Amino acid sequence: MKALLLALSAFFAIASFSPDQIEGRWSRVYNDGNEVVYARVAKDAQGSWFDFAENGQLSVRQNAGWCGTPPISYTTYTGGSYELTKKGKLTMIHEFWGGMDTTYHQIASVTDDTLRMKFMARGSK
Questions:
Q1: Neighbouring C-beta atoms of residue 50, cutoff 10 Å
Q2: What's the CA gap between 116 and 108, in Å, rounded?
Q3: What does each C-alpha distance from 64 to 40, 53, 76, 119 come to in angstroms?
Q4: Is the pTM of this model over 0.70?
Q5: What separation in angstroms does the CA of 80 have from each of 21, 68, 102?
């Protein structure tokens, strides 16, 4: 009976995440239901992206102003931060054209080249 319980607990174990799994530059690819799918991109990638670095440092490249009508001008905001819990709760704090932004996400999965996460909330908690 004990062996069965151990096997079931391993089978239903909750995924554990660590910051080194998401380190690197990620660009949004598409929405899949309530999850957003990101692909790992090269350091010279254009467009918008998140760059998760060591020690919780975050850089974000996104539109430089409030207008999203093409052609879009991009700016890279450095000096942001992120925190990732073992249960996959991700908090990102960074500048944007209107001031500071704090967003909360839940990571669903991460592989070498794909990051899937769900947006949870914006603002201070």
A1: 22
A2: 5
A3: 22, 22, 8, 22
A4: yes
A5: 18, 22, 10
Residues 6 or more apart from 41 whose CB is under 8 A from it? Answer: 25, 26, 27, 49
pLDDT tens for 18-63 read 999 999 999 999 999 999 999 999 999 989 999 999 999 999 999 9
Tracing tokens 């929405």 back to the chain, one arrives at 31
Give the helix/strand (H/E) hosting 5: helix 2-11
HEC readout, 20-87: HHHCEEEEEEEEECCEEEEEECCCCCCCCEEEECHHHEEEEEEECCCCCCCCCCEEEEEEEEEEECCC
Secondary structure class of 6 (helix, strand, coil): helix
